[in-house]
Amino acid sequence: MTPDEFLDAFQEKKTSFNSTIGNGIPKILHQTWKTREILPMHESYAQSWKLCLDESWIRVLWTHEDMESVVEKEAPYMLNIWKNFGKWIERVDSFRYVLLKRYGGVYVDLDIECLRAPILPKDGDCGVVLSESPYHRVQNSVMASKPNNVFWDEVIKLVMTRADERKQRKTTFAENLIPFLQKKVPVHNSTGVSLLYSAYADSKSYICKLPCKNWEGRCDACTSSLSKCNPNNATLDKISETLPMFTVHHGTQSWMRDARLADHRLLLIW
User: Fold this and answer.
1) What digits encode the pLDDT tens for the residues 11-65?
2) Can you spell out the DSSP letters for 167-197?
3) SS3 assignment, position 148
């Protein structure tokens, strides 16, 4: 289903969005890429989701072209910040949070390969599910949520706060003279995994983590002891030994090739 078809169906309720995988999380698979033409290295992974998921699922690939109108409609308070991000991946990261806030469903990166149909925690209080990283934190490669969960308000608020802090930071004379010297905030901290982990650690929402060994596939660093940073975190290590492996995260890091919105804008003034 294209994004336009999805939005029309959602607006006019042409399609039933009542089918869930439990905990009120609808059977919608969201993925994002620059255009409709995904990289050859990702084609087999995308195909794996077609094989894993039955016909009750809705699959949507969102492109850069689709994102601004969704942010403008669903999070207009963030639009100026969103448009002023220096890198597309920052726009994409924050778009995903808006997407899950409004529509719910399951988001997966394009370099995630599906091995078998996912089984999420059967916990009525678990309205948000995040994947565990090999370092016992959470990451944004696999995320699931019921619509309108307050956790995404917390994440979006943190995105905006950090953007404002970066904007208000005073630059030195040398940095103004030579823009290349200006300190760059890593994407992980502005919109990515570090920001998500900070929101998760501070949240009072009830959040489940998907055990790394069942969802990551590259978990030499994983042990059965999960982070206890969030007192409301649902510890799932008890089921990690009994559940099979559902997905493999191949870690192609294609987002790192995104560069800046204006790749050739930086000029050194000598």
Assistant:
1) 877 666 778 877 789 999 999 999 999 999 999 999 999 999 999 999 999 999 9
2) HHPPPPHHHHHSGGGSPPPPHHHHTSHHHHH
3) coil
